[in-house]
Amino acid sequence: MMTVKPLFDQVLIKMTEAEETTKSGIILAGSAKEKPQVAEVIAVGEGKYDDNGKLIPMVVKPGDKVLTRKYGGTEVKLDGEEYTLVGQEDILAIVTD
Prior knowledge:
By secondary structure, the protein is mostly beta strands. The chain has a single domain (10-18, 28-95), classed as Roll (10 Kd Chaperonin, Protein Cpn10, Chain O), CATH 2.30.33.40. The chain has strands at residues 10-15, 38-44, 48-49, 55-56, 65-68, 74-78, 81-87, 91-95. It is globular, with a radius of gyration of 15 Å.
């Protein structure tokens, strides 16, 4: 398997599958599903350096579930799987159960 180590403040995420059934039990047709915005963090860079050369550490870590901007990032395919590479600024929140 290929290993990817994002640079600086980049984050490799894998989008989660869209729910096919609503909480009330309604099954959604393929066209009714929106692009999911919840993703799992796969790998993170070490952080970004500020203007003074100080490392700003990453807030997210592998395994976190995150809410991301709807559009953005770079889609990549690794070992047949689709991932997205985004900057940490494109992650809006960490999702907990």
